[in-house]
Every structure is written in structure tokens, then in C-alpha cells.
UniProtKB/TrEMBL annotation, chain A:
Top-rank lineage group of the source organism: Archaea
Organism of provenance: Haloferax marinum
Coiled-coil ranges per UniProt: none
Pfam families: ABC2_membrane_2 (PF12679)
Protein name, entry field: ABC transporter permease subunit
The keyword GTP-binding is assigned to this record: no
Keyword Secreted among UniProt keywords: no
From TrEMBL, chain B:
InterPro entries xrefs: AAA+_ATPase (IPR003593), ABC_transporter-like_ATP-bd (IPR003439), ABC_transporter-like_CS (IPR017871), DrrA1/2-like_C (IPR025302), P-loop_NTPase (IPR027417)
Name of this protein: ATP-binding cassette domain-containing protein
Source organism of this protein record: Haloferax marinum
Keyword Chaperone set for record: no
Pfam families: ABC_tran (PF00005), DrrA1-3_C (PF13732)
Stated family: Belongs to the ABC transporter superfamily.
Length: 311, 322
């Protein structure tokens, strides 16, 4: 009951501040606008379907991927940033201004506040994002573009989950920060790690481990395949990468989805191994669990800190 | 039954340096004791005034009743519930006007009160609550971000009154209000008490407490130094005398302080002002003169309640230049 009333009040505040409106316009222009650009102009009459833009294997996308870039991946990066911006002040702003005391003067528990905020802000980001996908849908319908319903709906759902996972991460930062400054810089740091630094982490950790094994007597070093597997696994711990590879799987096989955007040597080493049997921790279900983990665990960590704090 | 019960409650705020302190634990962390071994209880149906100067620990105590702040040691029960473990149950039956709060800028006054009613699962009429605290329909429709300090205070009170709570906890309810507003506030406290609610409110101004309280507790530097009815305090005031002495030479102030029955010693306008019981007056004069100084002149008056409050709350801060 009170969790919902916290969420409802938070959502209403997002309407009042025009934040919801602004995001809705933004996503409508971004997703609907790019659909209009491609299907109404660039790919007009090419027999294009929804996969041409939202998929990963069209000629257009092949061109993109040369630059290490996919349209859906880009949407993910933007969604993550918007979700963090939306969520990172959820609790600390109220703590600093003192409205939290008004909120907690009522019979709301701190748990209601943390998870109510999570619900409210997730709705704000997801609904505005949904407006963008609806706009793109309308554009495709109007331009007579064939729409592959199942993968398209799957992508919308995955995008909603990605947005929610970054709202969760933002709530965690907000709940465990002692000041708005801390939450702000924490947000920048987290985004930087996931968007830029992660490749270095996934490459570095196996190398470091291998180096350690080399130095220690009596231990075998890792095989190339092991190193590549470890690197790939770490890569998909990143919600942005989990989202991307799951999106690829909507159009392609699990193996192709896992090896999406990997280097040539990596692909040559892993493909035969995966073809024999794809390890469970590279299955779509497992990657999906990782994405869900990013939704469930961060707010729990946030709550764990937040419930102890003196206001 | 006691509505509020504190048992040996202590709150120390550790001044931690954040992450650095966690990494490098240092021994010289500054701890401030805001509340020190505090025990008292407030009976159901009582109006209890919680008095003390700023910084005495009143708000910390109130914040602990509401689980905004956790005690370092000791136990607190409010309305029969543990204030920490069962805080939601406490707040379901408690109306709160907290200290250091702010309103939601973008929500209207009415929406604030509706939120309180909804949270309390009560059936009150928001407009009725708002008009009770003196906010008209016009103000109710405006966003609270544009409210004055006094209007915000009224709004927060209206939220506290939602659901006819068994207990009202009001932290400095009159702050930000003009004298007329402070009077309305007292009337509401009285009405709520007549309805049967227990009222616990804090103030640093005695005048606000005097008119409505059944009992007061005076807090200084985190310790309860007096707990009495207003009549009891007044009796004490009547038994208390204020001596104003013209002294030639240096009086030994510590010796004066040590005299039985003396509660305060300070120097004001070149005179020595001593608060003491009636029968201690002669002893004070004797003590000063035994030290070589002479009392050239003195006058005496009886103390007011205000003097008692000041004597209680400021006694240790008074340093007299000799």
C-alpha cells in the first residue's frame, strides 16, 4: 500500500516537473525519428523490414559494426545514461532537502521508500522509452515497412529491462551516498565504467590471472580458449553488453549472438568450442539472469545501507 | 500506560571522515554525545513540553522516537512499540511535525494532505484539515514550493493531524509562525489533548509551553535536568530569590556557587546576580564577606518561571569575569 503511494507520488512529481514529457519527446524523436529517417528516406523502396534498423545483420548494420557500433547498442547506451540521470537523485535529493522527513513522518518504511522510488522512476524511463518504440512502430506501419513482430516486441521488452537495471543502479547510488555530489560523481563513474572501461576490465582480468599463474610455480597457465571464454564472460556481466547480445539472439542463434562483435582470433578459437556445446553460462537464459540480477541486487544493496543511516 | 518511554538512551554521533576513515581507521575520531543516558516517560493523554536551549539534544531525541536516528544505546518504546523495530506501527498512530523538513515544491497543499491521509489510511477531508490550520482553499490549490515558512509549518501540522493520531510529536511547532499563528498552534494542541491524544512537543521558548503543558522536561546538553509540572516549576520559582549585590573587591565566585541553595551566579551590569533559595540569601552574603570583599548594597526579588528556565539551561555556561 505505502510502497505504491510512494511510487505514485514520485511518478506524479515526474509529470509535474515535465521530466516525463521531456523524456517522452526525446525518445520519440530519437527512435521514431531515426525510423523515419531510415525507412522514410534512406532505405525507401529497398524492401527494408524492421530488422534493417533494429537488427544486427542487415547491410546497414554490417556497415555500422565495422565501427564497433550497432543501432540497438547505441539505444542501450543512451537508455542507460537517461536511467542513471533519472534515478541518481531519487533518495539523496529528498534527504538533502528534508522532504524525506515528511515522507518518513508518515507510516512508510524505508523499504517502501527505496522500492517505491525504484518503481516510480522505472515507470518514468520505461514509459517514455515505450513512446519512442511506438512512434517507430507507427513510422514503419505508415511507410509500409514489414515489421518482424516477435523480435521487435522482444527488443522493446529487453530495452525496458535494461532501463530498469540502470534505474536500479542509480537508486543504489542514491541510497548509499551521503551527498548529492557523491551521488553525481558516483553516477558519472559507474557510467564511465560500463560504457568505456569495461572492455579494459574484461581484457585485463584474464591477462592478470594468467600472469599470476605464470609466476606461481607448478601451475598451468590458461589456454587461449580459456582466456577468451573468461573475457567473454566478463564482457556479458555488463548489463549493456548483456542487453546487446540478447537483442542479437532475437534475430540469430545463441552462438552468433554470443560471438557478436568479437575479434577474428577470438571467434576462430571459440566458434568450434561453442558449436560442440555452448556452456550454460553463455546460454541466453543465463545472460538474461545477469540482466535480471542488475535489476534485483543493486536496490537491495542500496536499501541495506539506507536502512542504517541517520537522517 | 506510558505513551513514550525512554530508558537510558544515549546517542553519540561519530564524526567519520567517510571512505578515508574506513580505509585508514584512526583513533582520533571526534564523537559528539548529543543525548546522554536519557530516561523519562510521557503518560497517555498528557501534554508534555520538551524544553531546552538550541543544541540541547531535543531534536535528536525526537528523531530517535521516529527512527530517523538510531540510539547508540538504551531502549525506546512509543505507544507500546519498539521505536526502532516497529517504527511503522508507531508512525501509523502518530502525527509528526518534524524539524528540518521541507515540502514537495511541485505538489499542492491539498496533495500533501491527501498523501498523508492516504498513507495513514484515514478518511479525513483534506480541506477540513487545511482550514483547521488556517490554510484556505486558495492556498490549498497552490504548489507548496511558493509557501512562506509559516504556511509550510501549517501544512506540515495539517499532515500531522491526518487520521486523528493517538500521539502527536511536534518539533518546535511554533517556529516560523507569528504570535497569532503560535497561539492558533497552542489552541490546536489543546483541542487534540481534549480529544484524548497525547502531545509531545519541543520548544526553546518557555512561554509557548507554559500555557498548554501538563508537564515539562528540561533538557540541557543531552541530559534531563528537570521534570515537573508547570505548578511544580512555579512553586520552585516562588521559593527562588534573585539577589543583586554591589560588591567592593573580588568575590570568590566558586565559593558562592558552592553555597547550599545557590543555583546560578552571574555578573550583570557590574552587579553580581545570584539565584538562590530564600533561606540561602544570608549565607551568600556571609560567604562573600568572609572572603575579604564587602557587600555595599543589595536588593532582592522573587524569580519568574523564565528565570528558572534560564537558570536551569544556562547555569553552566555562565562565566563571571572576576
Amino acid at each position: 500500500m505505502t510502497l505504491e503511494s510512494v511510487a505514485r507520488k514520485d511518478f506524479r512529481d515526474a509529470i509535474r516537473s515535465r521530466w516525463l514529457l521531456g523524456l517522452t519527446l526525446f525518445f520519440t524523436l530519437l527512435i521514431g525519428g531515426s525510423a523515419a529517417l531510415f525507412f522514410g528516406y534512406l532505405l525507401r523502396g529497398d524492401g527494408a523490414n524492421s530488422e534493417s534498423l533494429f537488427g544486427f545483420t542487415s547491410t546497414l548494420q554490417q556497415l555500422f559494426s565495422v565501427f564497433g557500433f550497432s543501432y540497438t547498442g547505441m539505444i542501450g547506451f543512451i537508455l542507460a545514461l537517461i536511467a542513471l540521470v533519472t534515478a541518481h537523485g531519487a533518495l539523496i535529493d529528498e534527504r538533502e532537502s528534508g522532504t524525506l522527513k515528511l515522507l518518513l513522518s508518515q507510516p512508510n518504511s524505508r523499504r517502501d521508500v527505496v522500492f517505491g522510488k525504484l518503481l516510480g522512476r522505472s515507470l518514468v524511463v520505461s514509459l517514455s522509452m515505450l513512446a519512442g518504440f511506438v512512434a517507430a512502430f507507427v513510422v514503419m506501419a505508415v511507410t509500409g515497412t514489414q515489421i518482424l513482430f516477435t523480435p521487435y516486441l522482444g527488443q522493446v521488452a529487453l530495452s525496458g529491462l535494461l532501463a530498469t537495471s540502470f534505474v536500479s543502479i542509480g537508486i543504489w547510488l542514491s541510497a548509499s551516498s551521503d551527498s548529492q555530489r557523491q551521488a553525481f560523481f558516483g553516477t558519472i563513474g559507474i557510467y564511465f565504467i560500463f560504457s568505456v572501461l569495461w572492455a579494459a576490465v574484461s581484457t585485463g582480468v584474464p591477462r592478470l590471472l594468467n600472469w599470476a599463474l605464470q609466476e606461481l610455480p607448478g601451475l598451468d597457465t590458461l589456454t587461449t580458449v580459456q582466456i577468451f571464454q573468461m573475457r567473454l564472460f566478463i564482457k556479458y556481466l555488463n548489463p549493456l553488453r548483456a542487453y546487446e547480445t540478447l537483442s542479437v539472439q532475437l534475430y540469430d542463434s545463441a552462438i552468433a549472438a554470443r560471438l557478436f562483435k568479437t575479434g577474428l582470433s577470438e571467434r576462430l578459437a571459440l566458434e568450434p568450442v561453442f558449436a560442440e556445446s555452448l556452456p550454460f553460462y553463455f546460454s541466453g537464459e543465463f545472460i538474461f539472469l545477469i540482466l535480471l540480477g542488475w535489476i534485483v541486487i543493486p536496490p537491495m544493496l542500496g536499501y541495506w545501507t539506507f536502512k542504517r543511516v541517520d537522517l | 500506560m506510558a505513551a513514550i518511554e525512554l530508558n537510558g538512551v544515549t546517542k553519540r554521533f561519530e564524526d567519520d571522515g567517510g571512505v578515508l576513515d574506513t580505509l585508514v581507521p584512526s583513533s582520533n575520531t571526534d564523537a559528539v554525545t548529543a543525548v546522554d543516558d536519557l530516561s523519562f516517560s510521557v503518560e497517555a493523554g498528557e501534554v508534555f513540553g520538551f524544553l531546552g536551549p538550541n543544541g540541547a539534544g531535543k531534536s535528536t531525541t525526537i528523531n530517535m522516537l521516529l527512527d530517523f536516528v538510531r540510539p547508540t544505546s538504551g531502549s525506546i518504546r512509543v505507544l507500546g512499540h519498539d521505536a526502532q523495530a516497529e517504527s511503522v506501527a508507531v508512525r501509523r498512530r502518530t502525527g509528526v511535525l518534524p524539524e528540518g523538513y521541507d515540502v514537495y515544491d511541485r505538489l499542492t497543499g491539498r496533495e500533501h494532505v491527501e498523501f498523508a491521509i492516504e498513507s495513514k489510511e484515514a478518511g479525513d477531508d483534506p480541506d477540513e484539515l487545511l482550514s483547521r490550520v488556517g490554510l484556505d482553499a486558495d492556498a490549498a490549490d497552490r504548489r507548496a514550493g511558493g509557501y512562506s515558512k509559516g504556511m509550510k509549518q501549517r501544512l506540515a501540522l495539517a499532515m500531522a493531524l491526518a487520521g486523528s493520531p493517538d500521539l502527536l510529536i511536534l518539533d518546535e511547532p511554533s517556529s516560523g509562525l507569528d504570535p497569532a499563528g503560535a497561539r492558533e498552534m497552542r489552541d490546536i494542541v489543546r483541542e487534540e489533548a481534549d480529544r484524548g491524544a497525547t502531545v509531545f512537543f519541543s520548544s526553546h521558548v518557555l512561554g509557548q509551553v507554559e500555557a498548554v503543558c501538563d508537564r515539562v522536561g528540561i533538557l540541557r546538553e543531552g541530559e534531563l535536568i528537570a521534570e515537573d509540572s508547570i505548578e511544580g516549576l512555579r512553586d520552585r520559582a516562588e521559593a527562588e530569590a534573585i539577589l543583586r549585590l554591589d560588591v567592593d573587591g573580588d568575590a570568590d565566585l566558586d565559593a558562592v556557587r558552592a553555597v547550599e541553595g545557590v543555583s546560578s551566579v552571574e555578573s550583570r551590569d557590574g552587579k553580581l546576580v545570584v539565584g538562590c533559595t530564600d533561606d540561602a540569601k544570608a549565607r551568600v552574603v556571609v560567604t562573600i564577606e568572609s572572603d575579604g570583599a564587602t557587600v555595599a548594597d543589595f536588593e532582592t526579588e522573587s524569580a519568574s518561571l523564565e528565570d528558572i528556565f534560564l537558570a536551569h539551561t544556562e547555569a553552566e555556561k555562565q562565566e563571571v569575569p572576576a
